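[Archive record]
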Amino acid sequence: MYGATCSVINKISNEGANYSQRGDAEAAYMILTSFEFILILHLMKEIMGLTNMLCQSLQQKSLDILNAMSQVSTTQSLIQKMRDDGWEPLLTTVKSFCEENDIDIPDMNAHYTRARGRSCRQDEGSPTTMEHHFRVDIFTAAIDFQLQELKNRFNEQAVELLILSVALSPKDAYKSFKIDDICKLAEKFYPRDFTEQEKICLKFQLQHYMLDVPKHQDFQNMSTLSKLCRGLAVSEKSKIYPLIDRLIRLVLTLPVSTATTERVFSAMKLVKTRLRTRMEDEFLADHLVVYIEKEIAKNFTSEMIMDEFYSISDRRRA
């Protein structure tokens, strides 16, 4: 892909329709064939490879929080390991790539200074070496940005919230179930969703829940909170343990456990366009449900919908 791209751009720089097109192509070719660009290209490939699994997982419609925390932790560890030990292997890979594609490799011990535009030049009066520029200003800076982004998104309070939420997980036969952690979760992070009396009752409900639900046949071999919530609703145990059911539903609304909110806003831009700005809220909500739940909507045929409307009409006449 790289070789083909360079060939096309080089051809445009030589055979372009006008001076402007040839000039832009020549400038692009110089950047593409520079050592710094190749370094950044390989660096982004490594970083995106390490973070891709976490990004894909967080975009899932429903994600188990325990798995999410595990992936956040492993991603941070891998990026930190790359920061500590990844420079030499990356530099070796970049040099090998440059040799294969006849790209000039600068002297890493030479002095570096910024020149006009995007390029750089060596200068004996500069205290910064080329290796320092590539390693510190590009390699380390890019990795530190990724680590800081993960830290901002998963700060200490958020991590504590997620760790406490794991106590509700049915995974591994409810191995993580801890009454004290669940009560602390409701007390510290959802104080407005439970009254003081409900917080006291929650502890007693959890004691009954611990002896009932994990041993029930319908609730064995569950692995996610979403399945547990669905099971409580189907078995009507949500009526027996309403406070626990409420807490589970609150946890399921966490951004790390569902991407539904992002999907709604993305779908809203497609459904409510400039020509549909006067669409009523209820009508918009109905359209969004159909658009977002495409997999479910495919199960309904036009005949089924027409029959439903006919049945509604018959009930009204009756």
